[in-house]
Amino acid sequence: MMKSALVVIDVQRDVVANAFLRDEVIVNISGLVDRARKEGVPIFWVQHSDDELVKGSEGWAYVDELRMGDGEPAVHKQFGDSFEGTNLDELLQESGVERLVVCGAQTDACIRSTIHGAFTRGYDVTLVSDAHTTEDMTEWGAPSPDVIIKHTNMYWSFQSAPGRTAKVVTTAEVAFSA
User: Fold this and answer.
1) Phi and psi dihedrals of 167, rounded to 5?
2) Helices marked H in 40-158
């Protein structure tokens, strides 16, 4: 059986402050975290920092609704792809993980970068369709958040590569033992 891990990306106060369907997405992520803990599935928490999101600041912290558990590693990143310049790949390999279940923010940046980064590194990647979000950047020419999320869910469901699978499932459909 393939060992899975839950990867929670950038659900930080300032990152999701104005996110589309913020509360619903956080409830879904919280449910995934609870299920992963009950099933003994490792959870990896990713936290972004940069000049605007200063490590250690109030806005950099994870939202109050989500709490990291003892022994659940926090991976600190400075790039969109959670693997770049971090020890995430090493931590996953040490844990024997072959499949990632991914949720968090921002859909059009760190989520996309990370699912592609994981896939090219040989992991099977399941994106949880109703557990990722982004903010509205239409004033800069981006599509609306709902369209970004739908498009990401659609195109990820058609990804393929030798010996790897890409899937999109709802929170209710996540099977960590798959």
Assistant:
1) -135, 160
2) 88-94, 112-120, 145-156
Q: Tens digits of per-residue pLDDT, 49-103?
A: 999 999 999 999 999 999 999 999 999 999 999 999 999 999 999 999 999 999 9
> In this predicted model, what pLDDT tens digit does every residue of 31-52 receive, in sequence order?
999 999 999 999 999 999 999 9
- Vertex 58, ends 18 and 69: CA angle to 5°? 95
Q: How far apart are CA 67 and CA 47, in angstroms?
A: 13
Q: What is the token pair recorded at 130?
A: 């109703």
Q: Which pTM value belongs to this model?
A: 0.97
φ and ψ at residue 42, rounded to 5 degrees: -65, 145
Q: Which two tokens stand for residue 103?
A: 């949720």
In angstroms, the Cα distances linking 136 to 20, 48, 54, 102, 142 are: 7, 19, 22, 21, 8
| Cβ atoms of residues 100 and 75 within 8 Å | no
Start-end of H helices in 40-144: 88-94, 112-120
